[in-house]
Amino acid sequence: MLKLLTINNVVLIKKAEINFNKGLCILSGETGSGKSILLDALGLAIGFRSNSRLIGENNDFAQVVAEFDISNNDTCRNFLKENDLFNDNNSLIIRRVIKENSSSKAYVNDILVGINILARIGEFLIEIHGQNDQRGLLNPACHLQILDNFAKNKQKLQKISSIYQKFKEVDEKINDIKKREDFLKREQDYLEHVITELEKVNVLIGEEEELKNKKDQLVAKEKILKFFNEIKSNLLEANSQLITGQRYFLRNQNIIDQYISNSKDDMENLNNVIDKQITELDLEISKIDDQIYQISGNNDNLEEIEERLFLIRSLARKHNISCDELSKFNEDLNSKLQLITNDQLSINDLNQQRKQLIVEYKICAQELSKSRKEAAHILSSKVENELQFLKMANVKFMVNVDYSESDNIGVKGMDKVDFKASINNRDFDNIAKIASGGELSRFMLALKVAISNEDFSQTMIFDEIDTGIGGAVADAVGVRLKLLSKNRQILVVTHQPQIAAKSDMHLQISKVANDDKVNTIITNLDQQQKQQEIARMLSGENISQEALNAAESLIKDTY
């Protein structure tokens, strides 16, 4: 609810401070007195575009401050909290400043904000309707939302929205895989080719080093055999000399016994040493024989070893890795191939999920459509009753719900909703095509009254929607505006005394000339002043006693 509006230097309004109340607030004044300026100032506070032409003459800035009570406006409160703009006292203060260079700054609870944020906040605070601005009535895009609010379809919409989001996620995954399908196919063919090549060669870790050693041995085979044979020959010759020496020693044992008996122990030790040397040399010669046998018996083909080495080294160079990494490389490629295979398999699973979600979606869409059709019937009757009250008895109103089942699903179901009317028993058609300005206003008012129990959070402004009506029709419009204002704040710009008489608060907008300057003055009328203003609206500038009496009668009839 709008509590306070302070205006400084906006066009002809030099300074104004207006305290607003709940209920029906009337704004009246002669044509050109500045009623639109007041609405322009309020528009600045809720995010309308600024213009330096709004700055009053001989001033370099204009400022508007609006204070709102948002204790019952949960949507606005939540938005402020999400953007760190909320204070704990449920009061929202908006300040908008315009300077000569057309720069504009906006503050929400003393925090500088962008105009886009301000405009979003404004949508939660005030709903403006003019004769040519019945957005909800003339714009088919709004009809579905109006009907859903009336039908209290919030939970059904949340459910179908949840299914729709899952459906979109599945579709995106399928599309992503399909977009990559050609690439994945090429990748799969490449991986399968490389894996087949690697598995055919089947390179083992350490195989290159083993082959290299085998090759080196084969290349040096004759040199190695010659070396071992010569060593063996030398050892055999040395062993033969030792054996000859030992035999000579034994043949001359008598000399040791007769002539050098004192050295007999030394001679026995020498014999033992020779015997040990002969035994050790025999063992080493046996080992050399084993080496010669192994090397002589190696049937490896040098050409085959070189071909194998060339093959695995070429394969390693091809993939820019070492020979020992080929085995791990093959494992990695198999893992990639498995992922591609899984992707292709997952399309089948995703398509199954998609089909199931469409089934669930259509069940929800049918339930939602049923709820909408039931609500449409009730809303149509309520609007028609209001139109009858507003002196449009020959008018029929229809909320048309068209359910169109297809695979092109949307977040709000499968219904197309539009409001149509029939005037003077003609065919139902778009309201904007067949209704006059005054009729449009009454259509909009009838709709607002019919759905008035759904939301009390916003302040509603009706800007001269009473054009083209008068007398009993104007009185009926006034009655319905009064009804609307019972639980909410309604601001109405009007020239109709029958409507003005029903006000809870009446603001008169007038021009005053002072020192060759013209200013717009806003006056909060008391009961006597209100009677005077309504009399002026009835009779013009020259207020007669009859007009005053008529004004008094209009006011009394309201209470």
Strand order, main sheet: write it out.
2-1-4-5-6-7
* Class derived from helix and strand content: alpha/beta
Shape: elongated
Provide the β-strand percentage band.
15-25%
Give Rg in angstroms.
Answer: 51 Å
The termini sit apart by: 24 Å
Calculate the mean pLDDT score and round it. 85
Number of helices: 19
Number of strands: 15
Question: Main β-sheet, in a few words?
Answer: 6 strands, antiparallel
The low-confidence parts are: none
* Fraction of residues in H or I helices: 55-70%
Overview of the molecule:
There is one protein chain. With about 550 residues, this protein is an alpha/beta fold. About 60% of the residues lie in helices and about 20% in strands. It has 19 helices and 15 strands. The protein has helices at about 35-45, 75-80, 115-125, 135-140, 140-150, 155-180, 180-200, 205-220, 220-250, 255-260, 265-295, 300-320, 325-390, 430-435, 435-450, 470-485, 495-500, 525-540, 545-559; strands at about 1-10, 15-20, 25-30, 60-70, 90-100, 105-110, 110-115, 125-130, 395-405, 415-425, 430, 460-465, 490-495, 505-515, 515-525. The strands form 3 sheets. A 6-stranded antiparallel beta sheet has the order 2-1-4-5-6-7, covered by helices on one side. α9 runs antiparallel to α11. The protein starts with a strand and ends with a helix. The model has no long low-confidence stretch (mean pLDDT about 85).
